[in-house]
Write a structure and sequence with these properties.
Blueprint (H helix, E strand, L loop, with lengths): L3 H4 L7 E9 L3 H5 L8 E8 L11 E9 L7 H7 L7 E9 L7 E10 L15
Length: about 130
C-alpha cells in the first residue's frame, strides 16, 4: 500500500504542496482510447523524469488510478465503500506528447513550498501582489 504522498513524489521532494486539476468536458470519453481495466477512476496525474539543462520536454507519463470493481461501479459507490485500511487501485500509465495533455486537462495549477517549513499545511499565506 502507498499513501497519496508516496504516489506523488519526486526523487528528493525538495518542495511539497498541492495540485488542482480541471478536466476537459470529454475527459472520460478520451480515456476510453487508453484501453483501461474495469473499475472507477479515482485519481489522475502526469509525471516526467529529470530535465537536464536546456532540453525540451516532449512526452509525459499520463496516469490514472482505478479503484477495483469490488468497490462498486460509480464514484459514489467507491466513496461509500472505502474501508478504513485503504483502497486497492491499479495505476495505468501511458506516455503521451506534452501537446496532447490539453485533450485531458483543461486547467492545471501546482505549488510547492520548501519541505522543511514546519506546519506548512496549516499556514495562511498573505500573498502580496
Amino acid at each position: 500500500m502507498s499513501t497519496l504522498i508516496e504516489i506523488v513524489n519526486s526523487k528528493y521532494g525538495d518542495y511539497k504542496g498541492n495540485v488542482s486539476i480541471d478536466f476537459q468536458d470529454q475527459f472520460f470519453t478520451r480515456l476510453k482510447s487508453l484501453d483501461l481495466p474495469k473499475g472507477v477512476i479515482v485519481g489522475t496525474g502526469f509525471e516526467f523524469g529529470e530535465i537536464k539543462g536546456e532540453c525540451s520536454l516532449d512526452t509525459v507519463s499520463f496516469y490514472v488510478l482505478i479503484a477495483s470493481p469490488e468497490y462498486g461501479s460509480t464514484m459514489q459507490d467507491v466513496i461509500d465503500s472505502i474501508p478504513d485500511k485503504g483502497i486497492k487501485v491499479q495505476k495505468v500509465k501511458q506516455a503521451i506528447p506534452v501537446s496532447e495533455l490539453g485533450k485531458f486537462i483543461k486547467r492545471f495549477n501546482c505549488c510547492g513550498i520548501y519541505k522543511d517549513i514546519k506546519g506548512i499545511s496549516q499556514l495562511d499565506f498573505d500573498i502580496q501582489q
